[in-house]
């Protein structure tokens, strides 16, 4: 019989007790970790949600120029951190003649713009993108390969461009700023002719207090055509998910692919985000700490209870000729091994719990979340084992120092 | 020839604020092959003395010599090795590992030796045979009667063939029939050469011993042995 055999049997033939111990530690570890995992993912989700409220970057043409080519969009998606780019909303700005005087036109991609400006509310109905059958998200992942294809869809169909066929054309979507709508007396559903095109007022923005109040918003491709700046952009607004990658990194990567362009982080957004996320991070670090302490206590107490239960075994082993160190190490190693197993079980349980609970705790969160971090898992397993041993060892070694006769006596 | 010589053994239990003197200058010697009964009222220090003789407890002061070796100043690991080679303990509460079979329990003291696994098993079987349990080696302690468990404990104590067998009320937890059987077994083992010191509360067993050492309030009041006897060299 070897020491290991003895060790194995003590677990095998007392699996009930061992299981209890295992469950105790598993609950401690899982109970500690799953709230932590969820709160950390909440933090990421919150950060991502925050990044989606408004642009955190603006790109403008190089100083002295008014326009930049459409290809810039493609360049933006070529950066290394492109997976963190949530929305790219290009715009073209200009002035057009209209029956009742000049109009400030902002050409936008309707889908992208509204994803960026979630706080906008409108009377009427926000139009969908001009690009018809092209799903909006495809725009965001435009690659060099399908750019030509995309661009073709951006072209205004020939029959619409020709003035003679104006009557047969479909009505174009128009969104008005509140002040502009009131100035001109235009209401929802009204048909307006601008530069030979027929528009229908689809929506009127609620007052914003910004330039948009005096603007007419139309599809970007049509605007570029009407302004006679085909495939040109005035500016691009970008919302990036920065929870996992700081905005400065994205800015510098874009600057690299677009040398000379003006790439600016929207400072207010960045600062505000930093403040809110920062607070949340401090909060979750604090809870993490408290909860880790509780976990260590629980694991420690469970291990200590186990150690106390086995005191007489220590005495007996000593009486039959095992050295004090051997006994202490033997039993500590058993607890350590159990801790290792329990840590593994506990971490898996925490992972499972987080995955199961997440949809209920954070409904509607779209951003993908990661619960599993291998290093964290490894640390947890090691910690459970070490904490178990650290809690068991002093008890074992103290017991081993006590007079064994006392523990084996008839009382 | 003396197997055990104890000189001026004092033992003080120091539990917090009050110290208790459990043994006061105990002197004794026990010869090789002797069967000694250690008796006395409860609390008189019997278990304490037994534990000191078995090198399990370190006396507060005094000298213990076993087989000519002064064990008083041995280090922790040496004491463990000494117990392994010289002493077999039997307790009133059998103290068998509940997760090991009878045979495995008997093998336990051999784990720390360099004996091969096969030989370990052989020795354990032999020890079990000596206590009449060769058939029940595969059983767990819970599947054995109290008397059988005590006999397994005795087999464990003798598996290493130690010269000295120390038994602390080995019949204390047993009925008369089982108690008698254990006593017969101990007598037998004594005849086979084991020196035995046994604590007992049962006066009926005293005549089975060669000598009775009586303790009272931590001092020997009867049968201290040959230490002070003329002609005995210490
Ligand atoms: N760890 C200890 N701390 C304090 N006092 C102790 C300790 N162990 C034993 N004693 C005391 O020392 C005295 C002797 O104890 P011991 O166990 O040797 O008695 P005993 O003769 O074996 O008694 P019993 O017949 O009841 O088993 C007792 O009064 C006991 O209360
Ligand atoms: Mg006693």
Automatic annotation (TrEMBL), chain A:
Gene Ontology CC annotations of this record: plasma membrane
InterPro entries named among the record's database cross-references: ABC3_permease_C (IPR003838), MacB_PCD (IPR025857), Macrolide_Exporter_MacB (IPR050250)
Keyword annotations of the record: Cell membrane, Membrane, Transmembrane, Transmembrane helix
Domain MacB-like periplasmic core: residue ranges: 19-234
Record domain ABC3 transporter permease C-terminal: where: 288-404
Topology of this chain in the membrane: Multi-pass membrane protein
Pfam families documented for this protein: FtsX, MacB_PCD
Residue stretches spanning the membrane: 282-305, 326-358, 378-396
Subcellular location: Cell membrane
A GO MF term: transmembrane transporter activity
Main subcellular localisation: membrane
Family according to the record: Belongs to the ABC-4 integral membrane protein family.
Protein name: FtsX-like permease family protein
Organism, as annotated: Heliorestis acidaminivorans
Automatic annotation (TrEMBL), chain B:
CDD domains: ABC_MJ0796_LolCDE_FtsE
Sequence ranges assigned to domain ABC transporter in this UniProt record: 4-233
GO molecular function: ATP binding; ATP hydrolysis activity; transmembrane transporter activity
The keyword Transport is annotated on this UniProt entry: yes
GO cellular component: membrane protein complex; plasma membrane
Organism domain of life: Bacteria
Protein name per the record: ABC transporter ATP-binding protein
Lineage: Bacteria, Bacillati, Bacillota, Clostridia, Eubacteriales
Alphabetically ordered keywords of this record: ATP-binding, Nucleotide-binding, Transport
């Amino acid at each position: 019989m070897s020491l290991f055999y003895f060790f194995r049997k003590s677990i095998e033939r007392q699996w009930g007790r061992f299981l209890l111990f295992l469950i105790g530690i598993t609950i401690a570890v899982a109970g500690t970790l799953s709230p932590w995992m969820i709160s950390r993912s909440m933090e990421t989700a919150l950060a991502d949600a925050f990044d989606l409220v408004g642009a955190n970057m603006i790109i403008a043409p190089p100083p002295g120029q008014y326009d930049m080519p459409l290809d810039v969009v493609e360049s933006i998606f070529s950066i290394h951190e492109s997976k963190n780019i949530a929305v790219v909303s290009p715009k073209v700005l200009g002035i057009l003649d209209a029956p009742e005087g000049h109009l400030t036109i902002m050409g936008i991609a309707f889908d992208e713009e509204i994803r960026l400006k979630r706080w906008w509310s409108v009377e009427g109905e926000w139009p969908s993108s001009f690009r018809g059958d092209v799903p909006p998200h495809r725009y965001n992942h435009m690659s060099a390969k399908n750019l030509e294809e995309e661009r073709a869809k951006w072209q205004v169909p020939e029959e619409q461009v020709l003035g003679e066929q104006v009557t047969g054309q479909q009505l174009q979507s128009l969104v008005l700023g509140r002040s502009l709508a009131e100035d001109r007396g235009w209401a929802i559903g009204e048909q307006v002719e601008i530069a030979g095109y027929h528009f229908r007022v689809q929506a009127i923005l609620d007052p914003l207090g910004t330039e948009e109040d005096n603007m007419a918003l139309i599809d970007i491709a049509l605007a570029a055509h009407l302004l006679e700046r085909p495939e040109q952009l005035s500016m691009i607004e970008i919302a990036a998910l920065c929870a996992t990658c700081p905005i400065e990194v994205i800015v510098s990567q874009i600057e690299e692919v677009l040398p000379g362009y003006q790439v600016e982080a929207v400072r207010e957004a960045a600062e505000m985000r930093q403040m809110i996320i920062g607070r949340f991070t401090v909060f979750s670090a604090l809870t993490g700490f408290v909860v880790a302490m509780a976990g260590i206590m629980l694991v420690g107490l469970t291990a200590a209870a186990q150690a106390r239960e086995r005191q007489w075994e220590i005495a007996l082993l000593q009486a039959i000729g095992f050295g004090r160190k051997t006994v202490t190490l033997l039993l500590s190693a058993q607890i350590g091994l159990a801790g290792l197993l329990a840590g593994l079980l506990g971490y898996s349980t925490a992972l499972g719990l987080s995955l199961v609970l997440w949809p209920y705790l954070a409904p509607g969160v779209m951003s993908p979340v990661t619960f599993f971090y291998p290093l964290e898992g490894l640390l947890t397993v090691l910690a459970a084992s070490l904490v178990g041993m650290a809690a068991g060892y002093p008890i074992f070694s103290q017991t081993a120092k006590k007079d064994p006769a006392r523990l084996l006596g008839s009382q | 020839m003396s197997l055990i010589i104890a000189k001026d053994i004092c033992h003080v239990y120091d539990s917090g604020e009050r110290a208790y003197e459990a043994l006061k200058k105990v002197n004794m010697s026990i010869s090789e092959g002797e069967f000694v009964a250690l008796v006395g009222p409860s609390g008189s220090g019997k278990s304490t003395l037994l534990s000191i003789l078995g090198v399990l407890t370190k006396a507060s002061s005094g000298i213990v010599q076993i087989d000519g070796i002064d064990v008083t100043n041995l280090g922790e690991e040496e004491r463990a090795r000494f117990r392994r080679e010289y002493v077999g303990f039997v307790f009133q509460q059998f103290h068998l590992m509940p997760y090991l079979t009878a045979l495995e329990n008997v093998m336990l003291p051999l784990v720390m030796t360099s004996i091969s696994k096969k030989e370990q098993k052989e020795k354990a079987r032999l020890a079990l045979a000596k206590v009449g349990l060769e058939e029940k080696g595969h059983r767990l302690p819970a599947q054995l009667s109290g008397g059988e468990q005590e006999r397994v404990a005795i087999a464990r104590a003798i598996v290493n063939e130690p010269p000295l067998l120390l038994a602390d009320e080995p019949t204390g937890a047993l009925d008369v029939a089982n108690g008698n059987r254990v006593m017969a077994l101990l007598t037998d083992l004594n005849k086979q050469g084991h020196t035995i010191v046994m604590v007992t509360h049962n006066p009926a067993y005293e005549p089975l011993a060669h000598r009775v050492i009586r303790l009272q309030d931590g001092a020997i009041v009867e049968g201290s042995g040959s230490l002070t006897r003329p002609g005995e060299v210490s």
